[in-house]
Amino acid sequence: MYASKLIVYIFARYNGQRGPSSVYHLFKGKKSGQTIQDVGLFQLHPFFSITPKLHKTQYDTYFNQLIQQQFLLLTEHTVYVTEKGWAFIEGFDPGPLDGWHYRGNEMIFMKRLSLVVQTLSHYARGASFIPIEQDGAIQRYVKSYLRAHQFQQPLFQETFTKQFIARLDTTRVEELSKQVFVLRLSGYEMSGHTWQQIQTELGEDVFSLQLRFIQCLHGLLMQLTETPLLEDLAQHIKIEQHYTQSTEKTFSLFKEGYTLSQIAQIRHLKESTIEDHFAEMAMVDEDFPIYTFLSKELRRKIEDVATKLQTTKLRQIKENVEQASYFQIRLVLAARRESKWN
Amino acid sequence: MELEHVLKEKFGYDSFREGQKEVIESILNGQDTFALLPTGKGKSLCYQLPGYMMNGTVLIISPLLSLMQDQVEQLKKLGEKRVAALNSFLSKEEKRFVWQHISEFRFLFLSPEMLSSTIVREKIHELNLSLIVVDEAHCISQWGFDFRPEYLQIADAMPENRPPILALSATATKAMTEDISTYLKMNDMQTFRYSVDRANLHYEVVEVESFEKQQKIMEQIEQFEGPGIVYTQSRKKAEKYAEQLASKNIRCAFYHAGMEQEDRRFIQHQFLSGQLDWICATNAFGMGVHKENIRQIIHDYIPQNVASYMQEVGRAGRDGQAALCTIYVEATDWTRTLEVAMLDLPQQWQIDEFLRYTQSGMRPDLLVTEGKMSETTYRVLAYWMNHLLPEDVLMKVQQLAMTKKQQLSELVHILSGSCIREGLLRYFDEEKNVDIANCCSSCGLNRHEILKKHIKRNRSKESVEWRERIQRLLPMHSN
Predict the structure, then answer these.
(1) Strand (E) positions, B87-148?
(2) Which of A94, A125, A159 represents a domain boundary (last residue)?
(3) Is residue A315 a part of any domain in this protein?
(4) Cα distance from B269 to chain A (closest Cα, Å)?
(5) What's the gap between Cα A237 and its chain centre?
(6) CA-to-CA distance for B331 and A43, rounded, in angstroms?
(7) Exposure string (b/e) for B368-401, b if CB count within 10 Å is 16 or more?
(8) B2-193: what CATH class?
(9) Do B263 and A130 touch (CB under 8 A)?
(10) In terms of C-beta distances under 8 Å and separation of at least 24 residues, what long-range contacts does B411-414 make, across chains too?
């Protein structure tokens, strides 16, 4: 249910301006100009790359179902939310997702947490065990973490458990999401449950459960300062560098003072590709020097038209602000930060 | 005396199992050694223990990633810190770590394809090796059921002045043993063969019509105790069986390679710790499942060869108690298995494509990425294209097809013979010396004398209230 609602909710944000695969690319975290730019345009940061391993067939099943249930309407490559669809998502709250800053890295935290819990659980009973997490880097991280905190001390174990419960308690997600989350943890004579098993136990579909799990994980990660023992497990997880690799190269040439067309020449790329990179930079970087490319007046004009016509379609705006180039319009749209959604 | 001391101190056992001590002594004497020990009889100890009695690194060449992972974890569980695996699936970070500390490990596992790299070879030559282990050594024989061409380079990759080699297998016939000695360039190889007979396993073939197969399997599981494994040929079937069993209140789950890594581990753990009684699985399940008390192995299809069958039924009864291995056969199963076995063999058009790619300077492994052939097919084809003239490759492939067909008919022959146990033993050039009660369905077998009745249990409802689960995972100290 959660998955279906979330998909409709995001199509509602696209506001009839994108096709069926857009949500799929968003969930996967596709690093193309279009997807990244849409993130800024429609304020979709929370949902970017929340399920990097999603299969197209799995997504399609959901999408087709939503069409069949008449929550979504597909006309000529564009998806609209129907009235029924709006009713379906009324009052829906996607919860504390933050895909933009984690992009799959939250699983590193989960693996560390899971191994710590597994270790403490077995240690308490004096039992040895084979770790669920076999990645050497995770094992070494947890080993030095446990050693640094003197995990044999009852005080540590107690404090850890208390902080864990306290943190989960204040995580702002439904109880169901918390249950899903803890069912993925293993310990002494208690294995984690597979998605299939959780589906049978809790009665929600696998994809929804997986999204709830990510939601709970992000919610947990958002506020760790008061639970330092958990905070220590979350080191180096947040993505600090937000540019895609290719944009990063363009960015450093731009900083060196090269112009757009010079950069295209140096990198043997089309100018339109470099324009994609600039649009991405304008979206991500609040200090992007947008006025290098257009005047303040022109920017205001474009913004006014976009607001008045309630559109992000480049051609429609261009028809009303003829002196602007498509590139300039894209920059302005990318740099728009105030949003009716927040 | 000293061997027993190390055995107790490092592994916690009081005595050796059959064969282990002889093999270990042979290695410690510096002899190249081959050991055939049946599945589940402690092969790994034969190199683990010497590792603690010699200085330097034990290098273990192992063909399967899951097997390698499992052996690393087993050693870590015993408290060994100086153990690592080097294979092409490691993360960058992990590879760097292993590479940086490569001379410090007591046990270093290596996948055979790594030996193609000159850098890896040079590094091996720099190491102070105490022993070279070739696990699943039958993979070197092209007559073997899972021939791995990369195994042929092992001898060349090793330094001139090498330590002894220990070759291990649970399924090598005498012909394969000769190949092992030749291709590994063994000096005066000492051979230790122990009987592959497992007296506590009882073999059963049940002929059925196709419409009643599933029902009969369900009835057997409802009637007799587990834990057990149902092996099927397809993922779908495994899921279907699991669903059926669950509806009959049997604690079970399915397992196949299409599931995500974590889910697969959860199922393994649940089965090991007794939270599940039955697993319905493809042959992806079993490697690294060290469960002592498996009472039943059920096949709903005919495995491809004697070795696969032995390996799968060999997971039953490791505690020495009686166990039943049943295979349900319908008339068309034979051809179905043959079809599956042929799937991975290269076709003429694939050979042509391979040739076209190499001649036009494209990398032939693109054929895998482009979905034109499976990885296994590519591995076989790439090897023969490198070693034979293109026009001879098709003939080679036809030979391989014949071999596979023959291997399957060997198993079919044994299963329909006058004594299944005798047939299996003869395959390994052994005689059946003792009569065993309820030996097999051909000799006559009464299930009730082998297995206890299944007692219906109510599935314990595990609480899902999250606080309670955390508290059960992490019990607070009582003070």
Answers:
(1) 107-110, 129-134
(2) A94
(3) yes
(4) 6
(5) 13
(6) 62
(7) beeeebeeebbbbbbbbbeeeeeeebbebbeebe
(8) alpha beta
(9) no
(10) B411/B302, B411/B303, B411/B304, B411/B305, B411/B306, B411/B309, B412/B302, B412/B334, B414/B306
Q: Which CA distances in Å does A182 have to A154, B137, B464? A: 22, 43, 8
Residue ending a domain, among A234, A261, A292, is: A234
Q: Say yes or no for a CB contact (<8 Å) between A182 and B77.
A: no
Which amino acid type is present at position A50? I
Q: Are residues A44 and A132 in the same domain?
A: no
Q: Are residues A61 and A116 in the same domain?
A: no
Measured between beta carbons, which residues in chain A are less than 8 angstroms from residue B251?
A: none
**Contact assessment for residue B69 and residue B288, using Cβ atoms and an 8 Å cutoff:** yes
Is residue A99 situated within a structural domain?
A: no
Q: What is the 3-state secondary structure (H, E, C) of A83-126?
A: HHHHHHCCCCCCCCCCHHHHCCCHHHHHHHHHHHHHHHHHHHCC
**Each residue's pLDDT tens digit, B61-79:** 998 887 888 889 889 888 8
Determine what percent of chain A falls in helix, strand and coil, rounding each to the nearest 5.
60, 5, 35
| Cα-to-chain-centroid distance, residue B24 | 22
CB proximity under 8 Å: A 153-172 to B: 154, 157-158, 160-161, 164-165, 168
Residue-by-residue DSSP string for B176-244: HHHHHHHHTT-SS-EEEE-----TTEEEEEEE--GGGHHHHHHHHHHHB---EEEE-SSHHHHHHHHHH
B401-454 pLDDT, tens digit each: 898 899 899 999 999 999 999 999 999 888 888 889 999 999 999 999 999 998
Assess if residue A116 is contained within a domain: yes
CB contact under 8 A, B77 and A128: yes
DSSP state for residue B440 in the 8-state scheme: B
Tell me the C-alpha distance between A209 and A222, whole Å.
20
pLDDT in tens, A272-329: 888 888 888 887 777 788 888 888 899 999 888 888 887 777 888 888 888 889 888 8
How far apart CA B327 and CA B392 sit, in angstroms, is: 39
Domain containing residue A90 = 2-94
Instruction: Check which CATH number belongs to the domain holding A72 and give it.
Output: 1.10.10.10
B73 at A interface, C-beta within 8 A: yes
Pick from A186, A185, A210, A182: which is nearest to A196 by CA?
Answer: A210
- Inter-residue contact B457 to B465 (CB < 8 Å): no
Indicate the number of domains in chain A: 3
pLDDT at B1 over 60: no
Q: Please report how the helices A106-124 and A206-222 are oriented relative to each other, as an axis angle in degrees rounded to 10.
A: 90
Domain spans in chain B, listed from the N-terminal domain onward: 2-193
If you ran DSSP here, which 8-state letter would residue B371 be given?
A: T
How far from chain centre, in Å, is Cα A165? 25
Closest Cβ opposite residue A178 in set B98, B246, B466: B466
- Which residues of chain B make contact with A140, given a CB cutoff of 8 A? 97
Q: What ipTM was reported for this prediction?
A: 0.81
Q: Is the pTM of this model over 0.90?
A: no
Same domain, A123 and A204: yes
Q: Do residues A195 and A252 both lie within one domain?
A: no
Identify whether residues A155 and A217 lie together within a single domain. Answer: yes
Lookup: tokens for A42: 């429609």
Q: Are residue A81 and residue A149 in the same domain, yes or no?
A: no
Residue among B466, B430, B450 at smallest CA distance from B171: B430
In terms of domains, do A115 and A223 share one? yes
Interface contact A56, partner B, CB < 8 A: no
Q: Do residues A110 and A154 both lie within one domain?
A: yes
At residue B353, what is the residue type? Answer: E
Residue A261 lies in a domain: yes
Distance CA A128, CA B80 (A): 13
Number of Cβ within a 10 Å radius of residue A3: 22
Q: Domain of A268: which CATH number? A: 1.10.10
- Select from B467, B448, B37, B449 the least CA-distant residue to A168: B467
Q: Does A46 touch chain B (CB under 8 A)?
A: no
